[in-house]
Specification:
The chain is of the alpha/beta class and about 450 residues long. The protein has eleven helices and 18 strands. Strands 1, 2, 8, 9, 10, 11, 17 and 18 form an eight-stranded mixed beta sheet that branches. It has an eight-stranded mixed beta sheet with strand order 5-6-4-13-14-15-12-16. α2 packs parallel to α9 and α3 crosses α9. The radius of gyration is 21 Å and the shape is globular.
Length: about 450
């Protein structure tokens, strides 16, 4: 099976660009052999490689990344490892209580596994367990927060309220009228995290970057064809999110999207004094189609909003420029005192959603496995699904594995072009409804 679309990533990812330059990449060359080949070195692929290497220390594992670790979707996220999420498909925040409780169990297990790795390997990634604040700027947003709080009550999850004075004390802005703080979220610098995860992989894992898989022969043993290499392997794991459909799996079930972020230049001393507020904070919008915002160490502000439909999976430059203008408006609305503050970077990151909110997990074909379609909760969910997939392959049972094995899989979507029209119209309407929350 030949991939018709290969991942393409620009160098506008602010999370990566503010770090020191990367060392030269290890590119796959020649004829190679491995017991397991994992495609995709995001949170899922990294977790699968680490856990499988622990369970099978005598087997060889290759981890293949099309670009550079830290520059792909995992390193382009907003940096929230969320235990309980409100999703962009639902009109309300969640549907079934038991299903939501199971999702929280999975997400918290992903957080715990990440925490264990970060602490054991002393990964410097600005790890912060202070939680997140769902923030509202409008009466509609406040209503959504109160609805969300009722759902939190049903789940018996803790939270606390921030009034407008507390929100200004936190952010320095008069924009937010109400906030709901939830303590279960972990935030970090995502590019630093994935780089640290990659650097600390077990010795029986070999990471190849800038090594996109172009063709897979699914006969046994499997053969992977790359630009400069051919890999023979007994087993394949697909951990490349929406791009997994390029190899023939769930082609009619995944909605390909690009999410967008922008990072400002460093605030100067005068701007820091004008803004006030806390040194760092983490805002999630009251409306799922609103704006996430963070003030990060180093005195920069992150603005993240806009889901754009992308049938070709990769971000387009025309969309990037359109989004940048939208982000500038969101920045000015929140921080009018910072009238001269500009963005250094604006970037997109591809992901995939399913209509019913379910992921792909498990056996795809003989000795071919997958964990993808993470529905926008890639850090915690991607990590635990990668770990559980390794345990599934190794035959290690657990209650968490039972949860994901018993869950539904992505349902089929309407055919194109009806899908294209429907998603674009839905997203435009949801952006309109979000209003000032965007």
């Amino acid at each position: 099976m030949e991939s018709t679309i290969l991942p393409q990533f620009d160098r506008n990812n602010g999370w990566l660009e503010i770090l020191p330059p990367l060392a030269p990449s290890n590119v796959a060359h020649g004829n190679l052999k491995a017991d397991v080949a994992i495609i995709g070195a995001g949170f899922t692929g990294l977790a699968a490689a680490r856990r499988l290497a622990d369970l099978w220390p005598d087997k060889s594992i290759v981890l293949l990344e099309a670009d550079r670790v830290g520059n792909t979707s995992a390193g382009r996220s907003s940096g929230f490892a969320i235990d309980q999420a409100h999703n962009i498909r639902a009109k309300n925040f969640a549907a079934g209580l038991e299903a939501e409780q199971n999702q929280i169990k999975l997400n918290r297990a992903g957080q715990s596994y990440l925490r264990e790795i970060v602490q054991e390997n002393r990964i410097d990634c600005d790890w912060d367990e202070s939680g997140k604040v769902h923030a509202a700027a409008t009466k509609m947003g406040e209503q959504k927060l109160h609805a969300y709080a009722k759902h939190m009550d049903l789940l018996k999850l803790s939270y606390s309220w921030n009034d407008s004075v507390a929100m200004k004390t936190l952010t320095g802005s008069n924009f937010y009228q109400l906030g709901l703080h939830t303590p279960g979220t972990i935030v970090m610098q995502p590019a630093k995290l994935v780089l640290g995860l990659a650097k600390s992989l077990p010795k029986n894992v070999t990471l190849y970057e800038q090594s996109a898989v172009q063709t897979i022969n699914f006969a046994s043993p499997h053969e992977l064809v790359l630009a400069e290499a051919q890999i023979t392997t007994k087993s394949i794991i697909l951990a490349n999110n929406g791009f997994a459909s390029q190899f023939g799996f769930y082609q009619k079930n995944l909605i390909p999207l690009v999410t967008w972020g922008s990072l400002t230049r460093t605030l100067n001393q005068e701007e820091q004094e004008m803004l006030g507020g806390m040194a760092t904070w983490n805002i999630i919008p009251a409306d799922p189609f609103g704006t996430s915002a963070r003030r990060i160490s180093g005195n920069r502000i992150l603005i993240r909003n806009i889901y754009s439909y992308s049938s070709k999976l990769n971000a387009k430059e025309s969309d990037r420029l359109w989004v940048k203008a939208k982000h500038e408006k969101s920045l000015r609305n929140r921080f009018p005192m910072l009238k001269d503050l500009t963005f250094d970077y604006t970037w997109g990151g591809p992901l995939s959603l399913s209509q019913n909110g379910q992921p792909v997990f498990g056996d795809l074909a003989p000795n071919v496995y997958g964990a993808f379609c993470l529905n926008g909760v890639g850090i915690a969910r991607g990590t635990i699904l990668g770990k559980l997939l390794a345990e599934h392959i190794a035959g290690k049972a657990s209650s968490l594995l039972d949860i994901i094995n018993n869950a539904d899989r992505p349902n089929k979507l309407p055919p194109r072009p009806f899908l294209d029209w429907g998603v674009k119209l839905n997203f435009a309407n949801r952006r309109r409804i979000a209003g000032l929350e965007l």
